[in-house]
C-alpha cells in the first residue's frame, strides 16, 4: 500500500514537472482566485508581455481558483519546484520569515506614497524581505501584488474610535492583526476570507476585518451595515517563481520575466488604489461608510503604538532591520 502511495505521489510530481522543449518553455502558475479577479488579471497581463517579448519561446499557463494548490500550500509547492510559479498571501511566509508581517503593523506607513515606496521592487525593505524569502523557501519573489488596505465592518454602533471595539469579537487574518485588535480592546478570531459571509450573517463575530474589494466581491454589504475606513495596514500578495527554474532560463528570458514583473506590479498597485476609491463610492449606496476624522484617527494610532514594540521583541533583529529600512524612506 505504501509503495503504491509513493508511486502515485511520484506520478503526480512528474506530471507537474517543468515542461520544456527546444522551442518552448512552459511556466505554470497556481492561483487562489479566479482569473477574472484583479490578481488573476495581473498574471494575464504578465503572460501577455512575456509571451510577446519571447516570441512564443516562453508560455505562461494559469491554473486559477486553487485548482492545483490551496493558498497555504503555494510557498512549499513553488519553493520545492513542484510547480514553476504562483501567487500567495504574503502572510503565508510568516512561518519562515516572520518579518514579512511588517506590512500588517498598524499605521506604520505614513500614507499611500510611503507604502508604495516601501513595497516597491528594489526598495531597502523589499531587498531584505525578498532575500529572506528566497533563502528560507527557495521561491524567488518576482513582484508584490497589491490587494488593498484594511477596513472594519460591523452591524451595531459605527466604529469610530478604539472604545467602540472594546470587548468585541473581531475577525482577523494574521497574527499581527490580532495584536492590533487586542491593543484596540477587542478579542481577535482568526478566520479565512471564504468564511466571512456566513460568520457575519450568523453573528459568529461582532466585527469584520478585510479589504474593500472583498466587501464588494464577497457581497459582505449584505450582512454588515457599517464599514470603517481605518486603512491601518496593507494587504499584500506575492508573485513567486521557483528559483532553480528561474536560474535555468537564459539571461534573455530572465530579463523578459523581471521586466514584465516590474510593469505589472505598478499596473496592479495603481489599479487597486484607484479602484479602492471607486469601490468605496459604490458601497456608499449599499452601506454606511465611516470616514475617520483626523482626531479619531489619532486615537487609533495612539492605541496601537505598542504593536510595533511587540513585533520587535517577537521577531528580533530582522524586525529592526525592516522597520529601519521602511522608515528611512
The succession of helices and strands, N to C, reads HEEHEHEHHEEHEHEHEEHHEHHH
Oligomer: single chain
Supply the CATH class.
Answer: Alpha Beta
Count of individual helical segments: 13
CATH topology: D-Maltodextrin-Binding Protein, domain 2
Helical content band: 40-55%
Second CATH tier, the architecture = 3-Layer(aba) Sandwich
Beta-strand content: 15-25%
Helical/strand content category: alpha/beta
Main sheet overview: 9 strands, mixed
How far from one another are the termini?
58 Å
Number of domains: 1
Characterize the overall form: globular
What does this structure look like?
By secondary structure, this protein is an alpha/beta fold. It has one domain: Bacterial extracellular solute-binding protein, family 7 (D-Maltodextrin-Binding Protein, domain 2, 3-Layer(aba) Sandwich), CATH 3.40.190. Helices cover 46% and strands 19% of the residues. The protein has helices spanning 2-15, 38-53, 74-80, 112-119, 124-137, 175-183, 196-202, 212-217, 243-248, 251-283, 294-303, 306-315, 317-327, and strands spanning 19-20, 25-30, 58-63, 85-89, 139-154, 169-172, 187-190, 207-211, 226-228, 234-242, 288-290. The strands form 2 sheets. Strands 1, 2, 3, 4, 5, 8, 9, 10 and 11 form a 9-stranded mixed β-sheet that branches. It has a two-stranded parallel ribbon with strand order 6-7. Strand 2, helix 2 (38-53) and strand 3 form a beta-alpha-beta unit. The model is unreliable at 1-11 (pLDDT under 50).
